[in-house]
Amino acid sequence: MAHDSKKGGKIVPVVLSGGTGSRLWPMSRASFPKQLWSLVSERSMLQETVLRGCSAAFTAPVIVCNEEHRFLIAEQLREVMTEKPSILLEPLGRNSAPAITAAALLVAQSDPQAVLWMMPADADIKNQTALMQVMEKAVQTADLGRIVTFGMTPTRPETGYGYIEKGAPLTGVEGAYVIRAFREKPAPDVAQAFVEDGGYFWNSGMFVFRADVLLAEMAKHAPAVLEHVQAAFEKRTTDLDFIRLDKDAFAQVPDISIDYAIAEKTDVSAVIPADLGWSDVGSWDALWDISVKDAQNNVLIGDVLTEDAHGCYVRSENILTAVSGLDDVVVVVTSDAVLVTHKNRAQDVKTLVDRLKREGRAEASVHQRCYRPWGFYEGLICNDRFQVKRIVVNPGGKLSLQKHFHRSEHWVVVGGVAMVTRDEDEFLVRENESIYLPQGCVHRLENPGKIPLTLIEVQSGAYLGEDDIIRLEDSYNRN
């Protein structure tokens, strides 16, 4: 797929991976959001999105993500890609318009007329062939100086999506239209009228545009966004494999979506209607809708048993979950939370998450398993003055050189071999061996072996919070 820009450059996929997907709680949380989970295939949604842009027609992608997820995202990309992506780090969330602007500034450095294909990292598309055919039209339209979005053909009167009303056909590209209006998420009767009309399409959140056109429209319609993102970009730093936007400058950026900043104001917008088997996988009922079902119309994942249940979505991450005599329910079981709701109330899960946040519950945003650049740890037992964790360190992984003011630690190796630094000494600790780290000692754990290192950590002390870590040296440039 080539396009007719003056430089004849390739298309640049841009993947936005900043959302948290709170309607898919308790699996999707801020610490590990839905795009990093394998929800619709064996790969994560981020990986599936990136692979859509893996062809000779496209350059290596640009990923825009929250800095807290940078190592998780880099590792997932390494699993499926041979090319090295550009990973832009947002120091804090500011919605899609600033993220897209930062990506456009990055690409425009080398080719202002390059065509960018902007995709959210958390949508599902079943028909890849149809997608590539639509992309051909979208690139042609973008080369005309248009900001193009894909309008998904509605299959039902969905009230959870925004709609795009198409206008007159666009001269020069068959199947492309001027956008007459954007419509907010409608009431049920309005959504039904949209579907019957035939001129309304779901807003997919995907855009195709030239970098210079996007930046010009930002200057015209959202100058404050462009000004502050440009300042953050100019003050950027390189951190390992990441491009880090300046935090102070980015904090001044207005929090606004690309729809409100540009799409609803510009006079160069266009829409290409398409039927791609698209879903934003924004809620559990949407995930049930696109998943393979059994003879009882159930979607069952994990250690699940049903009896006289129909039309249900049941997912269990670690324990036997049994559902009997229920229809059209969602049951999701994780290590620290259980969700039970009717499918037609799946949109209300976000309200539960908001309540958990107001009540200060960690389960709103953090999983028991916490990922780090060296591996992960997960809580097993927690009490006032002690807690027990399982720690897994990847081969070659190394924790920071650190100390704690309020706790001591006892490590028992149950798999692999550990290299432990304790003050001035180093110890090789093997399977079924242990080591004690008194309060205040300087210590480090690393895995010198070829297989994952697994150990059980017992912490004891007056305060066991994760913020009682004084990092003296870190291989991953964490503060």
Automatic annotation (TrEMBL):
Family membership, please give it. Answer: Belongs to the mannose-6-phosphate isomerase type 2 family.
Q: Which reaction does it catalyse?
A: alpha-D-mannose 1-phosphate + GTP + H(+) = GDP-alpha-D-mannose + diphosphate
Query: EC number(s) per UniProt?
Result: 2.7.7.13
Q: Which GO terms describe its molecular function?
A: isomerase activity; nucleotidyltransferase activity
Q: Does the keyword Isomerase apply?
A: yes
Keywords annotated in UniProt: GTP-binding, Isomerase, Nucleotide-binding, Nucleotidyltransferase, Transferase
What Pfam families has UniProt attached to this entry? ManC_GMP_beta-helix, MannoseP_isomer, NTP_transferase
List, for all copies, the residue spans of the domain called MannoseP isomerase/GMP-like beta-helix.
305-356
Determine if Transferase is one of this entry's keywords. Answer: yes
Domain Nucleotidyl transferase per the UniProt entry, residue ranges: 13-296
Question: Which intervals hold domain Mannose-6-phosphate isomerase type II C-terminal?
Answer: 360-474
**Superkingdom per UniProt:** Bacteria
**Protein's name in the database:** mannose-1-phosphate guanylyltransferase
- InterPro entries from the entry? GMPP_N, Man1P_GuaTrfase/Man6P_Isoase, Man6P_isomerase-2_C, ManC/GMP-like_b-helix, Mannose-6P_isomerase_type2, NTP_transferase_dom, Nucleotide-diphossugar_trans, RmlC-like_jellyroll
Query: What NCBIfam families does UniProt report for this protein, alphabetically?
Result: GMP_PMI
Name its species: Acetobacter indonesiensis
